[in-house]
Design brief:
It is a single chain. This protein is mainly beta. It has one domain (8-86): SH3 type barrels. The chain is built from 2 helices and 6 strands. The protein has a 6-stranded antiparallel sheet.
Length: 89
């Protein structure tokens, strides 16, 4: 039996990151085709990710991970859980 030891209080999503803030991905929520596509794009457990910028009025978010930049809708970003976030440097 696999037990998830990360408490719910520590888990957020990449949609909550501030510009310039980094985090480590915990998991992608769900099993839909969209979630599978996010995993194929490299959003997997243990991957470092950083928010580079976000368009105004809740527009797309640009992230850096695995040496490339990826633009996601905020609704997609809310599917990617993180278990810790690092301060803006």
């Amino acid at each position: 039996m696999l037990i998830d030891t990360v408490s719910q209080k520590e888990i957020s999503t990449i949609a909550a990151l501030a510009t310039g803030q980094s985090a480590i991905i915990h998991r992608v929520i769900g099993n839909s085709l969209g979630c599978s596509r996010l995993r194929e794009l490299g959003l997997t457990n243990g991957t470092a990710i950083r928010l580079l910028r976000q368009a105004p009025f809740g527009g797309p978010m640009v992230f850096e991970l695995r040496g490339y930049q990826l633009c996601l809708r905020p609704s997609e970003a809310r599917l990617v859980e993180i278990n810790n976030a690092f301060p803006v440097t």
